[in-house]
Amino acid sequence: MKKKRIILPTDFSKNSWNAIEYALTIFKDVPCDFFILNSYQVGASGLSTKMAGANDTRLYNLIKEQSQRELNRELEKIKSFDSNPEHTFIIRSVAGTLVNAIGKTVYNEEIDYIIMGTKGSSGLKEVFMGSNTYNVIKDIDFCPIIAVPDDYRPEGKIDAILLATGYEHLFENYELKPVLNLAEHFNAKLWITHVGTLNELTSKQKASKLALEKRLKSVNYEFVEVEKDTSVNQTIQNVVDMDRTLDMVVMINQDHSFFQRLTREPVIKKVTFNSTVPFLVIHLFE
What we know:
Strand content: 15-25%
Number of domains: 2
CATH superfamily of the largest domain: HUPs
CATH class of the largest domain: Alpha Beta
Mean pLDDT: 80
Number of helices: 9
Helix content: 40-55%
């Protein structure tokens, strides 16, 4: 796999460390530039006096210094965990919302993946990483995102990947690249799961399935049909629970997708919060 550029957002919680550990373990044999990113905000006091302004500036500087200090500490921890000479680490302390901080970094640094945790600790200095992760998935629609569940422990390899699709789109090679890169690198099997029954497929869906087969020539793959449970999210979880070898769930996110129309449920949101294995979301550029 060629060199990857990856953002690792952190709020210095155990949860975000778990996602960092996952990234370092999974990409241990891949040359990488890792951007360790912390964002911070100061709420305006609402008072337009000079004193309030000065207080805001003082508070801003304190928070900025704390962010920088914590990032340096995180970097030390990372370096004691990861000694790969082909891994470089860049720390970024950015004022503003997490979504804006990540968006700017993706745009300026040509990022390949964002990897973050799905449940954060709450507290004064921490943000709720869970809802933050979903906001990033929702708003950063120009970069693949891997959401790592709180209690997931990586083994350093990916043996099997589940791609859940409604066959509603004629996939281009570049759209599948984030998942194909992983499948090729780890020699992982790709399970293509369609929730529903095959004889319900429209001619457009059948064409999409055929096109998908052509795009998957470089990897070991198999199509599986899954009967829908109470919800698409529940169905996907059932498949993961049944097959313990699955190491990742992948969904392609597009507006008004088949899943959302079929079920009226915000599938991406639910899977983000409920997945027991890392969840890769790839957005479509339509």
